[in-house]
Amino acid sequence: MFTELRNPNINNYDKSSAPHAGGRTVFTFKNSFKNAILNINGGGEFQEGYTTVSVHKNVNGNADTLRASDDINNRQQFLFAQASLDVKSWTIFTGASFNTFRIRFQRFVPASLGKQTRKFNNEIAPRFALMKKFNRVNIYTSVAKGFSPPTIAELLPTGGAINLGLNAEEGTNYDIGLKGIFFKDIYVDINAFFFSLKNTIVQRRDAGGGDFFLNAGKTKQHGTETFISYPLLLSSQNFKRSLLYVSHTWHKFHYKDFKQLANDFSGNQLPSVPRHTVSSGIDILMNNGLLGTITYFYSDKIPLNDANTQYASSYHLIGAKIGFEHWFKNKIRIKAFAGVENLFDERYSLGNDINGFGGRYYNAAAGRNYYAGIVLQFLTRK
Questions:
Q1: What is the reported pLDDT for 269?
Q2: Which of 4, 130, 135, 272 has the most beta carbons within 10 angstroms of its beta carbon?
Q3: How far is the C-alpha of 221 from the C-alpha of 259, rounded, in Å?
């Protein structure tokens, strides 16, 4: 795999090329007992990447004077094993993975003392889950521990300074939930979770607009996520598909222990995460090929800095789409559509720069905008 990126930003013009290779192997075992079925999976994965990054002065959106040039070699490998046991209406899951991650930098411009290496080793991530089946409803619970090493973008941010002092995030997640069909046609999926995270990586902005990252102590994140859908108009012969859906998230994420110099942010809400979001819509496809979609999205206000002194306002978005699709000889499908996003031209900020220097948090989102398209598919129907 090969990735090439050109990124003009407020501070620099970045160029990167990243060839990447890896492999994965999986072994499976299955055995049936009198009242149980045992499944075991195990294996390993290896990935290695070689990234070349050059940072230039940005002049009117074009790369100018070279400011920095780096070679980056990252290697990640892990072993994993997991098992599931089905006993009548119960299913038990258990598993674990053993992870290592190593990243190596060498800066050529400006000249440095040589290669710098950071290793994140011997991280074991276990998981246990239990599920009970009741006719058309499943109830489950799980506990899992994991870790997430810093990404290349966090270790080498647009601010330009190599930061090998970042530690991997480590967390433990507990959740409980249910999903299934109620009252014949109503699908419900509800999950409640509690996530405790150490060494949380947070973003900062310097005076020049470049970003940098640091570990922010401990955070606690708990909330609920709900999705409900209902197929409308199934009794009508005019409709091929009709679905009404709504989803809601409630996220109470806050710093448990985070002090930076003379500032104590412990107890504050985690920036960038709204307390509530709602997404809903209606999706209809008629037998004559006419289709239509109406969507709605709401976001609660969003804290923009660790001190919680600035918030992006809440906003509502409505979108609509109409179209037509048709099959030709059961092999060719043509679909034409047109739609509008942000129907009521809501003013809001999207992709906020969290902890922006000097209060530079906001990025204006698109107002009312329109789109249209044609999709042509060649398929074989059996």
A1: 95
A2: 272
A3: 18
What Rg value do the Cα atoms of the chain yield, rounded? 25
DSSP β-bridge partners for residue 139: 132, 178
Count of all residues that appear for the chain in the document: 382
The two three-digit tokens of residue 186, written as one number? 């109503």
Can you name the residues that pair with 198 across neighbouring β-strands? 170, 218
Total Cβ atoms within 10 A of residue 267: 12
DSSP 8-state symbol, 314: P
Q: What whole-number distance in Å separates Cα of residue 319 and Cα of residue 343?
A: 6
**pLDDT at position 45:** 95
Cis ω for the linkage preceding 110 (within 30 of 0): yes
What separation, in Å, do the N-terminal and C-terminal C-alpha atoms of the chain show? 34
- Six-digit token string for 180: 């299934």
pLDDT at 41: 96
Q: What is the DSSP string of 103-132?
A: EEEEEEETT-SSEEEEEEEEEEEEEEEEEE
**Rounded to whole angstroms, how far apart are CA atoms 275 and 278?**
11
Task: Report H helices in the chain.
Answer: 152-155
Element (H, E) at 234: none
In this structure, the dihedral spanned by the alpha carbons of residues 220, 224, 225 and 229, taken in order and rounded to 10 degrees, is 180
What is the structure's pLDDT at 227? 98
